[in-house]
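name: query_chain
kind: protein
chains: 1
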Amino acid sequence: MKIINGNEFESTISSGVVLVDFFATWCGPCKMLSPVLEQVSEELAGKVEIVKVDVDQDGDLAAQFGIMSVPTMIVFKDGQPVGKMQGYVPAPQLKEALEKML
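structure:
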């Protein structure tokens, strides 16, 4: 799972469907979500790109999107936010939500 920074953010979300997971290394639910993201990334390969942003490393980016708690996932479609989920989300529920945004 690729961790991106503020410099890569705009180019990463500019086209297609991209889920950005705003996380922190010290966050328990974030650690639980990581294998779910890996699984969904494999299942939706070629349709959805999933990347991560460390809120402790990129606080400005997190603030720009109003991230108040982690994990928070924002789904972008061609650069525009189209969905937001907070907290741990099971793989089937996450996959279903993403498929609706394709």
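note: The domain at 2-87 is CATH 3.40.30.10 (Glutaredoxin).
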